[in-house]
């Protein structure tokens, strides 16, 4: 088992759960207190289960785009081997996984954001995503884009 890689994966999972919660409450409520963050580092499986439970109680309020975050979370958790999915304390590298994933998630954009950036209607953005003119991934009925791609398109 690579302890650093394990730590990074748990850090990424923590970031996704934190992002979901922040999106639900527009950053008005915090999922992660210092105590929860520290407890997660010391007992990651218990922490993951606790935070997952905290987030899932709001599942009926989720927007379709948040399904993408759940898919990412599932992929990370399923990538953990049995010997990695333990409550052994995390290597400090989990902070790298957490902050790197936060940065990556901050770069995701939906149709409304893209429409504002590109000065287009949301319908036009969806059509351009469907045709491949705008690089995007469709999750259910929702298009997800990288903000860097939108900035490049706007600059053309």
Automatic annotation (TrEMBL):
The record's listing under Pfam families reads: HTH_17
Q: Where is the Helix-turn-helix domain?
A: 111-151
- InterPro entries per the UniProt record, alphabetical: HTH_17
Please give the name of this protein: Helix-turn-helix domain-containing protein
| Source species of the chain | Sporolactobacillus kofuensis
């Amino acid at each position: 088992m690579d302890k650093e890689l394990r730590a990074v994966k748990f850090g990424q999972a923590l970031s996704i759960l934190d992002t979901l919660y922040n999106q639900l409450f527009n950053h008005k409520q915090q999922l992660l207190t210092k105590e929860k963050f520290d407890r997660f580092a010391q007992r990651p499986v218990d922490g993951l289960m606790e935070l997952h439970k905290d987030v899932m109680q709001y599942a009926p309020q989720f927007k379709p785009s948040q399904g993408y975050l759940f898919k990412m979370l599932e992929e990370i958790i399923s990538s953990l081997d049995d010997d990695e999915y333990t409550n052994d304390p995390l290597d400090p590298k989990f902070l790298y996984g957490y902050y790197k994933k936060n940065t990556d998630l901050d770069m995701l954009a939906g149709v409304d954001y893209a429409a504002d950036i590109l000065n287009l209607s949301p319908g036009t953005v969806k059509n351009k995503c469907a045709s491949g003119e705008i690089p995007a991934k469709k999750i259910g009925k929702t298009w997800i884009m990288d903000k860097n791609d939108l900035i490049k398109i706007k600059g053309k």
